[in-house]
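Notes to self, 3-hydroxyisobutyrate dehydrogenase:
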Amino acid sequence: MANLGFVGLGAMGGRIAYRLLQAGHILTGYNRTREKARWLLKAGMRWGESPAAVAQAADIIFSMVADTAALQAITEGPQGLLAGLGPGKIYVDMSTVSPSVSRALAARVAERGAHMLDAPVSGSTVTVEQGRLAIMVGGDQAVFEQVRPVLLDIGPKVNYVGPNGQAVLMKIAINLSLPVQFLAFSEGLLLAEKGGIPRETAFRVWMESVVASPAMQYRAPFVLERPAEALFSVNMMQKDLLLAQELGREVDVPLPSVALANELLTAARALGLGQEDFAVLFDVLAHMAGVPGSPSADQQSSSGRQDKTRATGPEQG
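result:
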């Protein structure tokens, strides 16, 4: 049992924190909106009044936030996480930010006698709950070995990839393929549909083919019914693609497919879909092709109720 802290208890962070509680660890947590952490408090989590308080209370402190601005908000100032760090403590940031930002933060952590690992994850809220999350880790390898048993309580696949910043680099390199894969899938599905094959039929055949990757296994069904809660929003996906393009310029790697996917994500935002799962790339292409997009969960439910009414007649009270 380890004495842990967790700052940033959103959709992903909260579920990861819950797995740590279920594994029997002591956990002190903080979230900007306490109400969102109420379910974790009921599950046994202790509350820290600030990121600094969480860092002071724990030996290993995790954080997971949306972007660089959010990371600065939880680490800077007298109530920030840095202020609570001291010699021997280990800080594990699971956010996806630029490698240079992560390395600069690691240097500041070291100034306080503590150690930092960057440990972004590959997966979604679904894979966290199923215990299938993959974690990549950058930082001092000896520190990684200290934290590895705790990371294995989060997910079964934990890979060390190099010094500070390298895990975030790896995460960005992986994430850029997600919208590219989905874009190709959407193009193929719409081509089949406009050629006369029903969408559901084309979807089923595609999912049974050799190109149905694990990532598409849980996102491709969103073309038949848009999820009620985004697993990974357009805005978050575009943030990662912009990071990839920035890195591509730094190391002279052309990323043409990323550029195209990024433009279509901008089109999704222009259509008011920025908070939807990035699977609405299909809807952008469907709009361009002149066919209906993916129905929302509410539309599906409404359609089901209408179908039932047509089949059975109005309910009698």
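- The first helix runs from residue 11 to 22.
- The chain has two domains: 3-162, 176-305.
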